[in-house]
Write a structure and sequence with these properties.
Strand content of chain A: under 5%
CATH class of the largest domain in chain A: Mainly Alpha
Oligomer: heterodimer
Shape of chain B: elongated
Order of helices and strands of chain A: HHHHHHHHHHHHHH
Largest interface: A-B, 19 and 26 residues
CATH class of the largest domain in chain B: Alpha Beta
Order of helices and strands of chain B: EEEHEEHEHHHEHEHEEHHEEEEEEEEEE
Helix content of chain B: 25-40%
Helix content of chain A: over 70%
Number of strands of chain A: 0
Structural class of chain A: mainly alpha
Radius of gyration of chain B: 25 Å
Distance between the termini of chain B: 36 Å
CATH topology of the largest domain in chain B: Rossmann fold
Number of strands of chain B: 20
CATH topology of the largest domain in chain A: MetI-like fold
Distance between the termini of chain A: 33 Å
Bound molecules: adenosine-5'-triphosphate, magnesium ion
Radius of gyration of chain A: 24 Å
Number of helices of chain A: 14
Chain lengths: 282, 352
Amino acid sequence: MLDKIKYSLKHLTVGRVIIYIFLTLGAIVMFFPFYWMITGAFKTYFEVTAFPPVWWPSSFNLDNFVTAFNMAPFMTYFKNSVIAMVGSVGLCTFTTILASFAFSKLKFPGQHIIFGLLLGLMMVPFEMIIITNYRTIIDIKIYNTIFALIIPFTSSIFYTYILKGFFDSIPDSLYQAARVDGCSNWKYLWRIMVPIARPSLVTIILLNAIASWNSFMWPMLAVVDKDLRTLPFGLYAFVSEGGAETQLMMAASTIIVVPMIILFLFARKQIVNGVARGGLKG
Amino acid sequence: MKITIDHLTKDFGSTIAVNDFSAVIESGELIALLGPSGCGKSTMLNMISGILPSSTGKIFFDEDDVTDVTPEKRGVGLVFQNYALYPHMTVLENIAFPLEIKKVKKEEREAKAKEMAKLVHVDMLLDRKPKQLSGGQQQRVAIARALIKNPRVLLLDEPLSNLDARLRIEMREEIRRIQQETQVTTIFVTHDQEEAMSISDHIVLMKDGFLQQVARPQELYDEPANCFVADFLGNPPINKTYGVVQNGAIVLDGGCVVELDAAKNLKEGHKVILSMRAESIVIDEGIKNAEGTVVETYVMGKEVLAYVSLGDYKVRAYIPAEKSFGKGQKVTVGLKKRGVFVFDAETGERLA
Ligand SMILES: Nc1ncnc2c1ncn2[C@@H]1O[C@H](COP(=O)(O)OP(=O)(O)OP(=O)(O)O)[C@@H](O)[C@H]1O
Ligand SMILES: [Mg+2]
């Protein structure tokens, strides 16, 4: 322990001090809204609106949460969010695996052109796709159903691109070995490729889950029924419809964010690993 | 199982990796497929395993035509140059994998895998991942995986090239032992002549996709079919000189006359290559085929390596350590019967 401190002190140069100061400032800036939200959830109305601001709530009780839950059906929102997330992430992961395998390991005519076109489509901003997706869900009659929150997100070029990159790094000799061992393409994919690609897959699933959990614009357009709302949309409605007080808003926001924070804390290593490391290390 | 390769060709478009290749490999033999890098050895092996379709020609296992049979149905075991072990599985799971695919019950396949592991001496490593193994251990696991389904043929693609010299010798003896215990017909790819010599029953030598010669190791060395085979085998490399047949002797470039019984039957004016192994050249020992000059000598301990000039060429010869020659000394050069070959200068075909 002492050695460690000595070691770090020895390497403490001016440049490093500056870097640490910046990193610390950055961390504070990032952390502050969360701090404000979470403490706000426990404050009384007077504490939240007081000036100069009150930094620490006078007591930690769950009154605000109870009130918020009574004012809007957050449990329903929560359930919808989970269904939409599990449904879209599950299906999307499945199609991503299949597409990545096809583009990476199979040979078919037009392979490179098709993949190039798909990559080109990534340039189209989401806001533009919303319009066509909106028309589509009306045409196939899933507007204002839970499926409207799932179907448009069952494939992803971006994640396919990432996973294909990883699959590319798996040597062909493994595929040939598996063939000689008697493996079919299908078995090879699920028994060899997918387990090897697990770190990448976990990353993809987590990023996708976070994106799905936080998505706001699409659920607002695709459903109108109150009991189909997801959490972010529900929170927005809670604020705009009820004219809710700030401390209740903070409580509701905390409810939404906490699951993701927990997920992130558990999977932090996986996310960073997956993003930082594309290839397969021998 | 006997393997018959019948006029097999693989055309990649840009290169013809294997060209009109015919050979028969007898059941239970260990064959070394030898040749320089890029000559089509891996391509050959991949066609036998079925990973790569052939362009034309046929492959028979015993009497069965397997040319269009997919790899999983050919019943071959293949060991890749980089071993290609499944990185997420333990040694035991790796070895048992071919049986898992065949839906053999878990206890049964694990029992069999342990048996295989014992055969290749990795039975104390069963719970490790491939990453935690040395190159030699990985290789033995790969061999066990290839052997577990009782393949009709075992194919090994330069399995020893990643190993250090000592391990390499150990492992090739190991492969020989395993092959003799299991009696599986084995093709062993290598570009190392010494490895091929020491391990195999027969050597199949190829170059640029063409078969050069199939022979027992000693025979390949003693009776090369053409100039390439003679060049390829032997350390130090064979002494290669060019010349013309004149009056029943060979006149090398630079005017040195080499009297040779074998040259008596050759056509006057024929352009030839005279190749002589270093150990087949004797100096000042009463046999006289030509006259030369000692250019340089290197003391090697048990013998002396001498460079002797014959016409424009400097040839290597071993001479006994107790003799000494000075630089520039004129000597008589004798050629033994064994290890001296004459080839056609154009085609490289053996003439004598
Ligand atoms: N997929 C391919 N497409 C085109 N050419 C190929 C392909 N695979 C191999 N070749 C060519 O075929 C020839 C033989 O290749 P091969 O891999 O069989 O050589 P090798 O004898 O195994 O060499 P090494 O000892 O280096 O492994 C080479 O010239 C190579 O460039
Ligand atoms: Mg090769």
